[in-house]
Amino acid sequence: xxxxxxxxxxxxxxxxxVLKTVSPGGVVIPPFIVWQGKTHRESYYRxxxxxxxxTFAVSPSGYMDDELGLEYMRQHFEPYTRGDxxxxxxxxxxxxxxxxxxxxxxxxxxxxxxxxxxxxxxSKSTHLLQPLDVGCFSLLQTTYERNLSxxxxxxxxxxxxxxxxxxxxxxxxxxxxxxxxxxxxWKAARCWPIDRTFHPLPxxxxxxxxxxxTSAVLDTPTLLRKLS
Length: 228
Fold this sequence. Notes:
Blueprint: E1 2-9, E2 12-22, E3 28-36, E4 46-47, E5 50-51, E6 55-59, H1 66-82, E7 92-96, H2 100-103, H3 105-113, E8 116-120, H4 126-129, H5 131-135, H6 137-154, H7 162-176, H8 179-188, H9 213-218, H10 220-227
Parallel strand pairs: 3-6, 7-8
Antiparallel strand pairs: 1-2, 2-3, 4-5
Helix pairs in contact: 1-3, 6-7
């Protein structure tokens, strides 16, 4: 599940996509970040010996596409969620929206082959059903903007680089993706906790022996049998 971000980097405005994945138990895997461009260098992510834990990719637009959707599944989601299993990992569920990069056949095929079951939310329902949309993205945006403003006031003569952007993003993620906020978002989207209690349908009351005129008219087969 991703969100488009805009940041002033190296003196110019460019776009990037940041995909964030969280579980109802509060586990947050590192982000999958798509830069706008054709190439990227390792120096983007290191400064002063600091290395950011994330998976990086590039596309001409900065958006996810079908190829990057497969890379997200193969190089990011599957390794981070399979744990230490060398054989077949336990089944995992991934809730996605209907973007083509999430539901392309080769993405779904890879997921099924690796015991990943995908649930695609109905169109135009993510503001109600997607936990990140319901309870995290708005807070993430306001917190990021506040942290960015603080950084710009502290460093008035510097243009924010990709490394600075990653530092601010990491700080924001720590502040927003707490256990309480994540679980509240899942509850608000009615995705967690799961109620496993079986609720049978109520037993209908017994039908009266006398048939009213209204029910006789509505129950055409019964009426025909009576007339015959």
